[in-house]
Automatic annotation (TrEMBL):
<keyword id="KW-0560">Oxidoreductase</keyword>
<feature type="domain" description="Luciferase-like">
    <location>
        <begin position="28"/>
        <end position="379"/>
    </location>
</feature>
<keyword id="KW-0285">Flavoprotein</keyword>
<protein>
    <submittedName>
        <fullName>NtaA/DmoA family FMN-dependent monooxygenase</fullName>
        <ecNumber>1.14.-.-</ecNumber>
    </submittedName>
</protein>
<dbReference type="InterPro" id="IPR051260">
    <property type="entry name" value="Diverse_substr_monoxygenases"/>
</dbReference>
<dbReference type="Pfam" id="PF00296">
    <property type="entry name" value="Bac_luciferase"/>
</dbReference>
<dbReference type="InterPro" id="IPR016215">
    <property type="entry name" value="NTA_MOA"/>
</dbReference>
<keyword id="KW-0503">Monooxygenase</keyword>
<dbReference type="GO" id="GO:0004497">
    <property type="term" value="F:monooxygenase activity"/>
</dbReference>
<keyword id="KW-0288">FMN</keyword>
<dbReference type="InterPro" id="IPR011251">
    <property type="entry name" value="Luciferase-like_dom"/>
</dbReference>
<comment type="similarity">
    <text>Belongs to the NtaA/SnaA/DszA monooxygenase family.</text>
</comment>
<dbReference type="InterPro" id="IPR036661">
    <property type="entry name" value="Luciferase-like_sf"/>
</dbReference>
Length: 433
């Protein structure tokens, strides 16, 4: 194996409501209590991670007209939590997912700049768009935007936010801001002086062609979903190749897929633990719910240990509200049927196999080596770890895998800077007065 020429990057994701976290496990804590956020953040900082990452929920999801959030319901607003975490951490980056669809540039730019000041330059923003009218009902204008309009709004939103951040000179003078675009008109003065990083680090998670172009033009980090080596390498090569058209270089954008991990003293033990975790994540009830979200119809009469439905999905179903279907329902159904038939899988077994994220499963040494291989072979610049237990699920990785990465020269042995940009090896933005 060739030696790494650069260190890999690590971040920690505090899961929201999904089929990764096993909230029913007796070791799981609260998704609301601050001690949960503090524990995971302190563990990530002890492990010298680049940043701590929070999701956003703008509306409680519904299924068949009832609130359905996989064992837990509700979560605090992300930037509020990060401001509190700034007081109990010293170096760890603090990143929040905030929608560019249902926020305004001036207000969000102010909150992020404030977090950057309070944390000493550790703020990050995961820019997302929101696709559904169901979520829009929680906001005055309601409705939703088509995909192209969402990305145009997001691009203008980020451009306007950067104008606001640049409106204070490096020597501390405020200058008026003027911005007139299709979505926003801003005239006035920004109230927050230029922050330690200049601009908070921008993260992006879209995988469409529009999302890839947006990331190549504007993002510092991509939170990708491509878990296999082959898919990761294809995505990595595609996005990195887009940078030159925007006057950017290979290392100006870090690609960090979201991954899970399961450790064991032997590979066999790790595989056994991983299988048990997947069974916990996909209970019989959740298997039927996952199936209904694809098929768009009531399948409560189906046996989770029986075969998949022979009927086709209903493409425009509103059975599940507040979440986006995972691709074209007909294509997903066909893929699931083929998988089920090829391996003789039941509904629950199919959902377990088809919806699992890429996991690094094995001994600590095997996981460390596999992570190195992904970076060596150009599938990632690092990883955003999504533990299945909150808040203590990261402890074992920090205790057992991080030291092995450090021994191999694949991960830092101490923070060399104080800002999130320094952790990621990103230059401070040039002031554009």
């Amino acid at each position: 194996m060739t030696a790494l020429t650069r260190e890999l990057h690590l971040a920690a994701h505090f899961p929201g409501v999904n089929n990764t976290t096993v909230w029913s496990d007796e070791r799981s804590g609260s998704q609301i209590d601050f001690t949960s956020f503090e524990h995971l953040a302190r563990t990530a900082e002890r492990g010298l991670f680049d940043f701590f990452f929070l999701a956003e929920g703008l509306r409680l999801r519904e299924h068949k007209g009832r609130v359905h959030d996989l064992d837990v319901v509700g979560r605090p607003e992300s930037i509020t939590v990060l401001n509190a975490l700034a007081a109990v951490t010293d170096r760890l980056g603090l990143a929040a997912t905030v929608s560019a669809t249902f926020n305004e540039p001036y207000e969000l730019a102010r909150r992020l700049a404030s977090l950057d000041h309070l944390s000493g330059g550790r703020a990050g923003w995961n820019v997302v768009t929101t696709s559904d009218a169901f979520t829009g009902e929680n906001f005055r204008r309601g409705g939703y935007l088509d995909r192209a309009d969402r990305y145009r709004r997001a691009e203008e939103f980020l451009h306007a936010a950067r104008k606001l951040w640049d409106s204070w000179t490096p020597d501390g003078a405020a200058r008026p801001v003027e911005h007139t675009g299709a979505h926003f008109t801003i005239e006035g003065e920004f109230t927050v002086p230029r922050s330690p990083q200049g601009h908070p680090v921008v993260i992006q998670a879209g995988d469409s062609a529009e999302g890839r172009d947006f990331a190549a033009a504007s993002a510092d980090v991509i939170f990708s979903r491509h878990g296999t080596l082959e898919a990761g390498r294809a995505f990595y090569a595609d996005v990195k190749a887009r940078l030159a058209a925007h006057g950017r270089h290979h290392d100006d954008l870090k690609i960090m897929p979201g991954v899970t991990f399961v450790l064991g003293d032997t590979d066999a033990e790790a595989r056994e633990r991983a299988a048990e975790i997947r069974r916990q994540q996909i209970s019989p009830q959740n298997a039927i719910l996952a199936l209904e979200q694809i098929w768009g119809r009531d399948l409560s009469s189906y046996d989770p240990d029986g075969p998949l439905p022979e009927t086709d999905p209903e493409p425009d179903s509103a059975l599940a509200q507040g979440r986006v279907r995972a691709g074209d329902p007909f294509e997903v159904a066909a893929r699931w049927r083929a998988l089920s038939e090829a391996k003789g899988l039941s509904i629950r077994q199919t959902v377990i196999e088809a919806t699992g994220r890429q996991s690094f499963v094995g001994t600590p040494r095997a996981v460390a080596e596999e992570m190195r291989r992904f970076v060596d072979l150009g599938a990632a610049d690092g990883f955003i770890l999504v533990p299945h237990i909150t808040p203590g699920g990261l402890d074992e990785f920090v205790d057992r895998v991080v030291p092995l990465l450090q021994e191999r020269g694949a991960f830092r042995t101490g923070y060399s800077g104080t800002t999130l940009r320094s952790h990621l090896g990103l230059a401070e933005p040039i002031w554009k007065g």
